[in-house]
Amino acid sequence: MFGILALGCGLAAQPSSARVAPRAPVSELLINASTGRVIFANLPDSPHRPASLTKMMTLYLLYDALESGRVRVTESIPVSRNAARQPASRLGLTAGTSLPLRTAVQAMAVHSANDVTVAIAERLAGNEADFAVLMNAKARQLGMTRTSFANASGLTNAGNQTTARDMVTLARALLRDHPREYPVFATRAITWRSRRYVNHDHLLGKVGGVDGIKTGYTADAGYNIATSAKRGGVRVIAVVLGEKSVQARDVRVANLVELGFTPPARHRRGAF
Description:
Elements: E1 27-32, E2 38-42, H1 55-68, E3 76-78, H2 81-84, E4 98-100, H3 101-111, H4 114-125, H5 128-142, H6 164-177, E5 189-192, E6 195-198, E7 210-218, E8 222-231, E9 234-243, H7 246-260
Antiparallel strand pairs: 1-2, 1-9, 3-4, 5-6, 7-8, 8-9
Helix pairs in contact: 1-4, 3-4, 4-5
């Protein structure tokens, strides 16, 4: 891409999953998080499936609820039959049980657990369909003009659609509006019932300054990632949507991060 990083950057190569149908070309967007200035853009408004980047919105709404007092940090989240039967990634929760809220947040941010995500949606709105209405209303409020959410998890659904620009908008909103909660995205691993779950974000600890935020994959979406990094007093946000493999996605976004910290004269200027 930019010739900044190659496969030798230390990011682990991961095999692609099953073959998928042709999808839109990869979209990329890199901005300065403080000013919103575009540093690099490649098809930032092309439509893509968000996959688990959707969970950034689910967590945003949960953080709103915590801030307003509608949800308490000390409470446990009940697990319905519907939540328990969600496909992987999941914790394997049992219907009729409950999960401490803080554990639920970590499971979503680190392991992208779909059963936990649906349980959170049901706690906030009663059911996932009504929660999707809240998600879309918040998306409009944040200025995400090309995004629609049909579920809380990002699992394949024709109603899920977004763009790199809108995912950058959401990532920036998380950083701006819920800075105290943001550090959970840098959690390297969690343990639940003696099993260790490692963060799907392979850039953590591999690319300087990277401290989150979310990865995603479905067969129709390809490999997605929203990443933020801070070096000195500068923070950048990069989004890649629709890559063909984990390895290609990770190298592409690592290159974007490095570009974000190069001298400004080399940047493409533009307004976010």
